[in-house]
Amino acid sequence: MKWTEFAGWGRRVADWAQEYHLTVGDRPVRAQTRPGEVLDALPATPPETAEDMEQVFRDFEEIVMPGITHWQHPRFFAYFASNAAAPSVLAEFLVAAIAPQCMLWQTSPSATEMETRMMDWLRQAIGLPDGFAGVIQDSASTATLAAVLTMRERALDWRGNQQGLPGQTPLRIYSSAEVHTSIDRAIWISGIGQQNLIRIPTTGDWRGMDPVALEAAIEADLAAGLTPAGLILCVGATGTGATDPVADCLAVARKYGLYTHVDAAWAGSAMICPEFRPYWQGIEGADSVVFNPHKWLGAQFDCSAHFLKNPDDLVKTLAISPEYLKTHGAEGIINYSEWSVPLGRRFRALKLWFLIRAYGLEGLRERLRNHVTWSVQLHDRLAATPEFEIVTPPMWSLFTFRYVPEGAADRAEDLDDLNLRLVNAINDDGRIYLTQTRVDGRIAIRFQAGQFETTEEDVMMAYDVITEIAGTLG
Question: Which InterPro entries match (predicted)?
């Protein structure tokens, strides 16, 4: 295809995208294809000669689209939504067209300086105090890895990168069992090792870390000659929305000199609403905080906001500057590749600029508040319905429940199987999409409202689908 043909195809793709978003609610939410079906439809060998774009686009619609689970569906209630608000998609179109490589200030000054400004807009929006600086990572997993590497280097007095871990006193990182598995991966990749990730018991409806147990674990490790290095807290964990008592846990961490990271990948977006900030009271005491605007806030994936109280620690951990990456003759610049694990960087700030300007913070707040309100209404209806029980209460727009028909409550394995059958039947039906989790070892069904275009009618429809299909299982 030539650039002289691009505008025509661009208009066609834009028309297709608009129609897709306007009608996606008419499709089954989850892909209905069988394993291997898409693979078998794709030729085993690449074409030797150019193919007509009409055929390529036709194959996209006939082969690719049937195998897509529609994350932009208004009744996508599984996992956490990965949104794509219209202004964000337009920004990504422009970024794809200009295709800048934004690893250094000099390789794209606009990208660097807009990232600085957009991260400060987000800092103000979620109520973090002056002094926090931010960088856009690809995902919360990368931000957490960067934080764990910083924990490692600070605890080893910056010797780890040069000397490695052999011969060093084992480092200990503390978290609850509710944190995302990206924490485990960060521990593996950093070389700290799974056995040195210490799980602290949780308490209360929020299923948050017990600060007393945290301090006891730190004291036990010190007595054993080990080195406490860092604390990872969660605000709105994936399974149940579990949230640690941030202020109390950070106080313990400060007492022992631990580097602290707060993973608020999903729920951090809610902090643009001041009434939700008590959930992370004390956040200003953290060293590192991450949340994903590409989840609840509406930005196109990937876009993870990573805030740092002292960026110098992160830069000291990650920066490496061969001559070909140096910028001479420019003072006071930031090279964000020194704040990230990858060298290459996308122009992610542009979609935040488009998104925030197109809706304003109040427009974004209204969406989040609606999701929370509607989710609580659904929770209340299920709680009042015979044969359903609430397992964990609403945390923002997330709660978990279980189907417990009469006579089934005492058969744990059978009840787990029944609820898995219910989830699978709901997803095969296609009108809504849910996922399951485990709470205290038992299967529970998750509900979370967060798709950008979800309506109250969509959320209330979930009640009808859940109760209707449960009634068919017997």
Answer: Aromatic_deC, PyrdxlP-dep_de-COase, PyrdxlP-dep_Trfase, PyrdxlP-dep_Trfase_major, PyrdxlP-dep_Trfase_small
CB neighbour list of residue 393: distance below 8 Å, 6 or more residues apart: 205, 379, 399
Question: Which of 7-41 are b and which e, b meaning 16 or more Cβ less than 10 Å from the residue's Cβ?
Answer: eeeeeeeeeeeeeebeebbebbbbbeeeeeeeeee
Specify the pLDDT at position 30.
93
pLDDT tens-digit readout, 429-470:
999 999 999 999 899 999 999 999 999 999 999 999 999 999
Residues of the domain holding 86: 1-30+69-99+360-474
How many CB atoms within 10 Å of residue 326?
Answer: 10
Residue pair 166/140 in contact (Cβ under 8 Å)? The answer is no
Task: State whether 291 and 161 are in the same domain.
Answer: yes
Q: What is the pTM of this model?
A: 0.91
**CA pair distance 20, 394, nearest whole angstrom:** 32
User: What are the two backbone dihedrals, phi and then psi, of residue 187, each rounded to the nearest 5 degrees?
Assistant: -65, -40
**Coil, strand or helix at 322:** coil
For the chain, what is the mean pLDDT? 92
Which tokens go with 325?
């990456």
Helical H segments across 168-228, by residue range: 181-189, 211-223
Q: β-strand 442-448 against 398-403: which pairing, if any?
A: antiparallel
Q: What's the rounded Cα separation, in Å, for the pair 132 and 306?
A: 10
Domain count, the chain: 2
How far is Cα 401 from Cα 470, in angstroms, rounded to an integer?
Answer: 13
Q: Which of 316, 346, 376 is the last residue of a domain?
A: 346
- What confidence score (pLDDT) does residue 401 get? 97
* Domain at 264, CATH number: 3.40.640.10
Q: What is the 3-state secondary structure (H, E, C) of 356-372?
A: HHHHHHHHHHHHHHHHH
Q: Both tokens of residue 290?
A: 């991450």
Mean pLDDT, range 13-41, rounded to an integer: 94
For residue 73, what are the contacts with CB-CB under 8 A and spacing of at least 6?
24, 25, 27, 29, 433, 451
DSSP assignment of 217-231, as one string?
Answer: HHHHHHHTT-EEEEE
Give pLDDT, residue 329: 46
Residue 47 located in a structural domain: no
**312 preceded by cis ω (within 30°)?**
no
Query: In the listed set 346, 370, 386, which residue is the last one of a domain according to the structure?
Result: 346
Kindly report, residue by residue over 76-120, the tens digit of the pLDDT. Answer: 999 999 999 999 999 999 999 888 888 887 788 888 999 999 999
pLDDT tens digits along 259-314 = 999 999 999 999 999 999 999 999 999 999 999 999 999 999 999 999 999 999 99
